[in-house]
UniProtKB/TrEMBL annotation:
Superkingdom, natural source: Bacteria
InterPro entries in the cross-refs: HAD-like_sf (IPR036412), HAD_sf (IPR023214), TPP-like (IPR024197)
Taxonomic lineage from the root: Bacteria, Bacillati, Actinomycetota, Actinomycetes, Kitasatosporales
Descriptive protein name: HAD family hydrolase
Gene3D superfamilies in UniProt: HAD superfamily/HAD-like (3.40.50.1000)
Amino acid sequence: MTAPDPRPVLVASDLDRTLIYSAAALGLTVPDERAPRLLCVEVYRSRPLSYLTEAAAALLAELARHAVFVPTTTRTREQYRRIRLPGPTPSYAICANGGHLLVDGESDPGWHARVRRALAADCASLEEVRARMLAAADPGWLLKERVAEDLFAYLVVDRERLPDTWVKELADWAGPRGWTVSLQGRKVYAVPRPLTKSAAVAEVADRTGARHVLAAGDSLLDADLLLAADTAWRPGHGELADLGWGAPHVTALPECGVAAGERVLREMLLHTRGC
């Protein structure tokens, strides 16, 4: 009889619009009296902000007992720390699209130094890219501009007023300089090409000796994470769904909104038990 493999399964999941949802993103389609019970997992400025279903909360707590669960987000560390997920506090978390690897809540300085060296060697500076973004933006549709962790930049825009060609023109300029540009919802992101979720997840997999990596995500910034996983899922909403993006090992789920988060966790738990 073959002994069970002691190496863990690693589960790396995006958070916003994959596992947790704002009120506007819940996507509830059933009558109010049949709506699922919701658990608030994030409060911002004393107001509830993000939710998952109570069923999803139970699934996540169970999943964390069977696998190494790694929240994997583009959020800054400050934004991530507002989230209180059910189950044990993850030993590892990935913030700023891979720029920070948190170990027991603290950024790993060695990992962050490696990221900084890669960006300095291969990419134009954040200052140059940010200046280009702002110079090309029109105050008529630019709502906000932000720099995240001194690693990447994004604009919050009025989608209806944003010119159809603007993002592509910025991407054409940024590409030769080692940066990628993507439009996700109301945000235009400019991210250095070496700054990826998949690189940070590979580091955690190496440290934990994981035998299998599961992943989930909904946006263009999650594509590298899903491609690098052994098995992955994407919801029926989001930029990847809008593009019809897929890969042989990535399951495109039909569910949208908060129901998709519950389905992702259910599938991950079933797969973890079968690994």
